[in-house]
Design goal:
177 residues, 28% helix, alpha+beta, eight-stranded mixed sheet, disordered N terminus, three-stranded antiparallel sheet
Length: 177
C-alpha cells in the first residue's frame, strides 16, 4: 500500500485505487459484527477515515479497536467501493478476524451485534448489504472486487423513511408495555 494525495492506495486486480475510508468485516462463524452509529444514525461496519499518511490497513485496525474494543488482524481485502452521486471518494473493506479484546459499545458504536446474511438490521446503511455479501464471498475464496455504489438523494430519502419507521415502531413497542 502506498500513500498518495489525502488517502491511501489499495491495489485491486493489479491497479491502485485511492481510498479515504476503511471498514472492517469482522466475521466469526459466518456472522458479521455491525454497529449502530449515532450520526448519521444507522447500522454499519466498523471503520473510519484514513488519516493523511496512514496506511488503510493500519487505519482499520485502529478504528475497530476504538469503536468496538476488539483487536483484529487483517486477512484480506474484500474490495474497494467508489461512491457516485452525493459523495465522490472511495472506501476499502477488509476481511478481519478478532485476535483479542472484548466487544463493547463506544461513542461511535451505541450498540454492536453479530448478524448473519439473513438477519441484517433493516436500518443497516444501504451500501453495507453488498459489502457484507462480498465479505462472505471473500471468506469463501472470492477475489477482491471494485464496485461503484450510488448515493443519490433518492437513497438518502428512502433510508431516512426506513429509519423514521423503525423509530416509530420502537416507540409503539415501548408504550405498549
Amino acid at each position: 500500500m502506498r500513500q498518495r494525495g489525502s488517502g491511501a492506495e489499495v491495489v485491486v486486480d493489479g491497479h491502485p485505487h485511492e481510498v479515504t475510508g476503511a471498514q472492517a468485516a469482522i466475521v466469526v462463524e459466518r456472522r458479521v459484527l455491525v454497529q449502530l452509529r449515532p450520526w448519521p444514525p444507522g447500522w454499519e461496519l466498523p471503520g473510519g477515515h484514513v488519516a493523511a499518511g496512514e496506511d488503510a490497513a493500519v487505519c482499520v485496525v485502529r478504528e475497530v479497536l476504538e469503536e468496538t474494543g476488539l483487536r483484529v488482524r487483517v486477512r484480506a481485502v474484500v474490495g474497494v467501493y467508489r461512491w457516485a452521486g452525493l459523495r465522490r471518494n472511495a472506501d476499502v473493506v477488509y476481511l478481519v478476524e478478532p485476535v483479542g479484546g472484548q466487544v463493547r459499545r463506544s461513542v461511535e458504536a451505541l450498540r454492536v451485534r453479530w448478524v448473519d446474511a439473513a438477519t441484517l438490521p433493516r436500518t443497516l446503511f444501504p451500501w453495507c448489504r453488498l459489502r457484507i455479501g462480498d465479505a462472505l464471498a471473500t471468506l469463501d475464496g472470492a477475489a477482491p472486487v471494485l464496485r461503484t455504489q450510488p448515493v443519490t438523494l433518492r437513497h438518502v430519502l428512502f433510508f431516512g423513511s426506513t429509519l423514521a419507521a423503525a423509530v416509530v415502531d420502537a416507540v409503539r413497542r415501548f408504550t405498549r408495555r
